[in-house]
Design a protein that fits this description.
It is built from 17 helices and 13 strands. The chain is an alpha/beta fold and 445 residues long. The longest helix has 17 residues, at 124-140. It starts with a strand and ends with a helix. It binds pyridoxal-5'-phosphate and zinc ion.
């Protein structure tokens, strides 16, 4: 069986382009493109047969099918030949049963999909493996693609730099100066990418990179490039796979540029169309109150959408006021009877600290998602017996400054009260004071 896929305009069904074409928007209407698959070919195999095939490949060694992205290759990007796939065995991340946190929040069946447990520490690896593999295929076919570039809030650039380094493809990244963590900044530097730290915000970097890519014939790796969406959509497939193909009631996702919610929506919709699942979950997008254009739009039933200048937020990877994938995201939210919720700086920091106390080590974006969930449970939107999966987007170890400042109670300026702070005690190395400290902690006076 041969499988085909192509770029197609979200609005004009007859505007189609091959996947190796360097194009991100419809030539006729300027709308975003999506990768579409030959669903007739894919449905030659039953839903059960696809599930069996995916289970058989999952986390095994046959390259590249042990990757949770490439294990779904037929539905992701069949155009890349196996030997051109650039994979670091992405996916296969833990679905953490947040039993204790769930009890505290009032949801019995709470799971955290740990997408940050990944090669570069965020879910961006899932999309980048597809994009960089396609570029490798294009270069192998003799197409001139001199470099790949992205604007980033820190995680896209880390993923791009790593995959390009593995494939010996030049990478260029634009980062907003002082708006990414030290860990995020050093990742592309270490991987040898040309790293530009620009005196602007993410939206400013985004405008510039498009211009530079256009003029220099460089391939653009931002999520307006829908190849990345194909890789990211495998989170939806993998998480139901990890639930023995049962669909949760809710999936909660922190959203900035809104590529990820679009990706998960696309994954669920395609699984449904192909009979892998028999119902759809409801989607929740969680935004930081300081960068909440989608939330504002949601309050008006999506009848209008106003880009903003995003204000500073601890959830720096979603400090985006003019999200590229907003049309895709709104379409997905409508289809999935979705909800948008916001979280203040205090709420997101508190949610992180609470989750960490139950064994997680959350990034601030995951905190936004958990804070949003907390509010939805309190309001009775999410019920106590609903099965909920929260998508954790990055590893907490990428954001040590945030954690340290929280526990030192140095986030007051951001409006955060560190109610759950845990201070290290610095003591002389002597039995007396050490023993006293231990006894005090154990309430033995
Ligand atoms: C990119 C990113 C997001 C936001 O994803 P979008 O697709 O831009 O909505 C959230 N959290 C982290 C850690 C990210 O890196
Ligand atoms: Zn169009």
């Amino acid at each position: 069986m041969s499988y085909r896929s192509w770029f197609q305009c979200m609005h004009c069904a007859d505007e189609r382009y091959p996947l190796h074409e360097v194009i991100y928007q419809c030539r006729r209407c300027g709308g975003l493109l999506q990768v579409e698959h030959d669903l007739a070919a894919l449905s030659q195999r039953s839903g059960q047969a696809w599930r069996d095939l995916f289970d058989q490949r999952y986390m095994r060694t046959e390259y590249p099918y042990g990757s949770a992205v490439w294990g779904k290759k037929e539905m992701v990007c069949p155009a890349v030949e196996d030997h051109n796939v650039v994979s670091m065995y992405e996916g296969g991340s833990n679905l953490f049963w947040a039993e204790r946190l769930g009890q505290q929040l009032g949801v019995q069946d709470l799971w955290v999909k740990q997408c940050g447990n990944s090669h570069t520490g965020s879910f961006k690896d899932l999309g980048m493996t597809v994009l960089v593999s396609m570029v490798k295929q294009m270069r192998a076919d003799g197409q001139a693609v001199p470099a790949v570039a992205c604007a980033s809030t820190g995680d896209t650039s880390a993923a791009l730099a790593a995959y390009c380094a593995a494939a010996a493809i030049p990478a260029i990244v634009f980062l907003p100066k002082d708006k990414v963590s030290v860990a995020q900044l050093i990742q592309p530097i270490a991987n040898g990418a040309l790293t530009l730290s620009l005196r602007t915000d993410f939206d400013g970097c985004m405008k510039l990179i498009q211009e530079v890519c256009h003029r220099e014939g460089i391939y653009l790796a931002n999520s307006m490039n829908s190849l990345r969406i194909e890789g990211q959509k495998t989170v939806s497939i993998e998480l139901v796979q990890q639930c023995d193909w049962q669909v949760p009631d809710w999936v909660v996702i922190p959203g900035g540029n809104l590529g990820n919610v679009s990706a998960l929506g696309k994954g669920f919709a395609e699984m449904h169309a192909l009979g892998l699942i028999d119902r759809l979950p409801r989607l929740v997008v969680a935004q930081a109150q300081n960068a909440n254009p989608l939330y504002q739009s949601y309050l008006r039933d999506f009848s209008e959408f106003h880009p903003q200048v995003a204000r500073k937020t601890l959830a720096s990877a979603i400090q985006i006021g003019d999200p590229v994938s907003r049309d895709r995201a709104i379409r997905a939210l409508r289809q999935f009877h979705g909800v948008v919720e916001e979280a203040s700086e205090d709420e997101l920091a508190d949610a992180c600290a609470q989750a960490d106390r139950t064994g997680l080590f959350t990034c601030p974006h995951t905190g936004v998602a958990l804070a949003a969930l907390t509010k939805l449970v309190r309001r009775g939107v999410v019920g106590p017996t609903d099965k909920v999966v929260v998508v954790s987007t990055a590893h907490g170890l990428k954001f040590p400054e945030f954690k340290v400042r929280y526990h030192e109670d140095r986030l007051a300026e951001q409006g955060v009260t560190a109610r759950r702070r845990n201070e290290p005690l610095e003591l002389d190395a002597e039995l007396g004071p050490v023993r006293d400290a231990v006894r005090r902690a154990l309430d033995r006076g």
